[in-house]
Amino acid sequence: MAVSPDPDTPSPIQEITLDAPCPTCGVPGLQMRSLALDIPYFGDALQTTVLCGACGFRHADVILTKQGTPTRHTFRVRNPRDLSARVVRSSSSTVRVPEIQAVMEPGPLSEAFISSAEGVLRRFQDILAFLERNASTKSRRSAARATLDRIARMIDGIEPFTLVVEDPFGASGILHEAAAAEPLTDEEVRGLKTGVFTLELRPDGPRARASR
After folding, report:
1. Which residue, of 7, 11, 36, 103, has the fewest CB within 10 Å?
2. Which residue ranges of the chain lie beneath pLDDT 50?
3. Are residues 123 and 203 in the same domain?
């Protein structure tokens, strides 16, 4: 039986109207919803979602109250249990799965998320499925299908893989006791790219790109 929320209990979600136009359609009156979080190992944070009621524009982020050290988190997923490891990705971080040469990079409309190692794989899976459907050649379609098959084996816990999260502001990470964390050098921070979601479909071919 469904239980109605107590009208006397304040909602943990705060909502305000921003005095700014939508970056997509230009209609004023963006709504921002925010929720205070206490993320293990990271501390207090604010999860925000900006919405446009006119065109459906949506942008989410996770903002830490304190800026951290530029850090790389690395986790080797070896079995089905490891797939539940929590992944915190801010809009400033880069996420990699080296085995399939997949890279999720930050850009102007990058969204933050709190997910699992499996959830990260499914995000790559969705984009790659789109690329397969829209591949311009048979070889690209075959390469995309082969990579999708590998991702499926990873999701099933059959094929191990490595998950890497790099954040120049230290606002991201992998919450698992076996995950390794190391500071990024200044050179590594400068080398972090921005702007696109990249999947390498062929070792010797051009990269297929989709905005993310």
Report:
1. 7
2. 1-3, 194-212
3. yes
